[in-house]
Design goal:
This protein is of the alpha/beta class. It has helices at residues 21-34, 42-50, 53-60, 65-75, 93-100, 116-122, 146-155, 169-178, 201-207, and strands spanning 8-11, 18-19, 88-89, 105-109, 131-133, 162-166, 182-185, 193-197. Helix 2 packs antiparallel against helix 3.
Length: 208
């Protein structure tokens, strides 16, 4: 990564901007409980925390097309606003965004679908981000590189002119496929990370 070339900093949402593990666990357990299925195992929770909602549902109801269809209908009755109190901002989030916003274009590439606007508005963060690309914005969500390619196209940037901050193998693979520099956040196993951090403030320290 050539620091002097970086013009944009792109963030994943879940696990990077927000600690959403409790909200995601509650959401999918509501669905599973309604469908009379066992609640999430630890391994299932790790998976659905990375996947888009549609991929998560397909994963949880694999080889059960009838149950999947009914579960997809039930999830429409869940009001995500009710789960917002379970989400918390990652430490130093606003401080980091404020400092980065002085010198970089900020964006989001997330496997969330229709909840991103509500989440940003609730936390008064929407003004920081010039572009927000979700799973519903592209044909293939992460780990496919489609979201990062869309951001490059929209912002008219080359792959070495932005950096992607993520916390999972899904993010790591997307960055690798797009050949975009990747900074892993609280994810020590990212083999392609140019830097591994545990504090969001390290982003502007690295890019300063």
């Amino acid at each position: 990564m050539q620091i002097d070339k970086i013009k944009a900093v792109i963030f994943d949402c879940d696990g990077v901007l927000f600690n959403t593990i409790k909200a995601n666990e509650t959401y999918y357990n509501m669905v599973l409980d309604h469908m009379k299925k066992p609640l999430l195992s630890e391994e299932q929770l790790k998976k659905v925390h990375m996947f888009s909602v549609n991929d998560s549902m397909k994963y949880l109801f694999k080889n059960e097309p009838d149950l999947l269809e009914k579960a997809m209908e039930f999830k429409k009755t869940i009001n995500y606003i009710d789960l917002l109190p379970l989400l918390t901002e990652e430490p130093y989030l606003k401080e980091t965004l404020s400092k980065l916003n002085d010198n970089f274009i900020l964006g989001i590439a997330t496997n969330r679908t229709n909840t991103m606007d509500i989440l940003l508005e609730k936390h008064d963060l929407e003004h920081f981000f010039k572009i927000v690309v979700t799973a519903s914005s592209v044909k293939n969500p992460k780990p496919a590189p489609d979201q990062l390619f869309m951001i490059m196209k929209e912002l008219m940037l080359e792959k070495d002119e932005m950096v992607f901050i993520g916390d999972s193998i899904t993010d790591s693979k997307a960055a690798s496929s797009a050949k975009v520099p990747f900074i892993s956040y609280k994810y020590k196993d990212a083999e392609n990370a140019v830097h591994k951090i545990n504090d969001l403030r390290d982003i502007y320290r690295l890019l300063a």
